[in-house]
UniProtKB/TrEMBL annotation:
Gene Ontology molecular functions: malonyl-CoA decarboxylase activity
Cited PANTHER family: MALONYL-COA DECARBOXYLASE, MITOCHONDRIAL, PTHR28641
Domain Malonyl-CoA decarboxylase N-terminal: 97-179
GO biological process: acetyl-CoA biosynthetic process; fatty acid biosynthetic process; malonyl-CoA catabolic process
Name of the molecule in the record: Malonyl-CoA decarboxylase
Domain Malonyl-CoA decarboxylase C-terminal, first and last residues per copy: 182-429
Organism: Candidatus Xenolissoclinum pacificiensis L6
Pfam families referenced in this protein's UniProt entry, alphabetically: MCD, MCD_N
Length: 465
């Protein structure tokens, strides 16, 4: 971009000249940091390896390590994907725990009867050099976001290169401490928030696509609310958000809820008379926080907030997709034996069907499909106690129970293909969350309502356990 264009842009939009130079560098070439712009040759790799080792020298104080960390961060951001992978390998191999020093420290602990001094020395040695670099980023402006994005890269790269996984795991430990729920703010997102934030809500929505600004306005209006977690070091980035619908009943169909319909856009002051909350979408926004479970805390914080703000609300449910049902049913159909009181051939034809523009075939098997789905949700747990359905596992692990199955609640193409249009209500009973959490995570016990229990009561053939 030419300097004359930059000056014109600056004048029109009130941007400072220096700020624009940073946003749109006039020079086309990459800036060289540490004398390196790329890692294509052995010399540049050797320079970086040497610099990284120097940067984590035990003789440096924290301020020096911070400056060095910023320098490394700036270098990382200008590299292409292949060079980033080389950079991460250098960081992993050059800054690992000193094994010889570790052995010496362990021996000292035994000799010194694990005194405070020997214990602290062991702890310090267990912190790798790169760990010191990572931790310094937290205190740099936008440094926490940089670490989150770097871990997102590591998660992606480690799919093909497993040797990078330990680095991703090490970053997860650091990020877990910084994204403790005590450091997160619960904020309600409204239509009055700045456009850049609303655009992120539209972009990050992972369950039910937001197709337009009008769609977004519908989801933030009347008795539809949206709540998000924010971190004070990433104030412009929602970390995870949940969308809810306030109602007087639990029987809600998703396609009706998402319609821009006045029946679903009640006045704000009517919220005080509503008794039910329906959680219908929850979306993680930061790939680098994968495995750091913020969703369960978000739901519980929202429950507490609504209890405080709207004391008439007594019941908390979800309206959730059943993501693994069709694949589970396909697996059951492909077994040599079929142990259910439902016509296998008709089920099999649906499992392999790709065109659901006509619902007649699905409707004709309504009772059987709902019974099979109830059986799936109530029993499909592996030997480790994890439910085969990812969404079910999430809610059951958070202390929810299975309340009801909704027929043809999600008639989108996605909903029909993954569960023949069915959705499930999970119930969060504030008085039973802890007991249900322990029951599922410790004993593989899934709590279901009488309605769901009756659905699959006779689904198995006589004589089959």
């Amino acid at each position: 971009m030419s300097t004359s264009i930059l000056r014109a842009f600056s004048k029109i939009h009130n941007y400072s000249w220096l700020k624009l130079i940073k946003l749109f560098p006039v020079e086309k070439s990459k800036p060289a940091i540490l004398g390196i712009a790329e890692l294509k040759d052995k010399k540049s790799v050797a320079v970086l390896e040497s610099a990284v080792k120097d940067f984590v020298s035990p003789n440096l104080d924290n301020s020096q390590i911070m400056r060095n960390s910023v320098m490394l961060g700036n270098l990382y951001m200008i590299l292409n994907v292949e060079d980033k992978k080389k950079f991460l390998h250098i960081l992993k191999d050059s800054c690992d725990v000193d094994i010889d020093a570790l052995k010496t420290a362990i021996d000292l602990c035994y000799q010194d009867e694990y005194s405070d001094k020997s214990r602290l020395k062991l702890i310090n040695i267990l912190h790798s050099g790169r760990n010191r670099i990572f931790r310094q980023f937290v205190f740099v402006q936008d440094g926490l976001k940089f670490l989150v994005d770097m871990r997102a890269d590591l998660i992606e790269y480690s799919k093909e290169d497993k040797t990078l996984k330990p680095l991703a795991d090490e970053l997860k430990v650091i990020l877990s401490s910084w994204f403790d729920t005590g450091l997160l703010d619960l904020v309600r997102i409204t239509w009055d928030d700045k456009a850049s934030l609303l655009e992120k809500i539209m972009r990050y929505e992972a369950v039910h696509e937001i197709e337009s600004w009008e769609d977004l306005h519908c989801r933030l209006s009347g008795n539809k609310h949206c709540y998000a977690f924010f971190h004070y070091k990433m104030p412009d980035e929602p970390l995870i958000f949940v969308e809810i619908y306030l109602s007087n009943k639990v029987e809600v169909k998703m396609h009706d809820l998402l319609l821009r319909n006045e029946n679903y856009l009640m006045e704000k002051d009517s919220d005080s008379g509503l008794t039910h909350v329906i959680f219908y979408s929850i979306s993680n926004t930061q790939k680098g926080l994968l495995g750091i479970n913020l969703g369960n805390f978000l739901i519980k914080r929202v429950v507490d907030k609504i209890h405080c703000d709207l004391p008439n609300v007594k019941y908390f449910y979800t309206l959730s997709p059943i993501t693994g049902f069709r694949s589970w049913l396909k697996h059951e159909c492909e077994k040599n034996s079929w142990n259910f009181n439902v016509d296998k051939e008709r089920v099999l034809s649906l499992v392999y069907e790709n065109d659901f523009s006509n619902h007649d075939d699905i409707d004709s098997l309504k009772e059987g499909l709902m019974s099979l789905c109830a059986y799936y949700l109530s029993t499909a747990v592996d030997e480790k106690g994890k439910h085969y359905d990812a969404v079910a596992n999430f809610h059951l692990s958070n202390g929810a129970s299975i309340y009801g199955i909704n027929w043809m609640s999600d008639i989108s193409n996605k909903g029909l293909h993954q569960s023949f249009g069915m959705m499930v209500n999970y119930e969060y009973d504030v008085n039973s969350i802890s007991d249900r959490y322990i029951g599922f995570t410790s004993n593989k016990k899934i709590e279901v309502s009488k309605t769901v229990a009756n659905m699959h009561k006779n689904i198995k053939k006589i004589g089959v356990l």
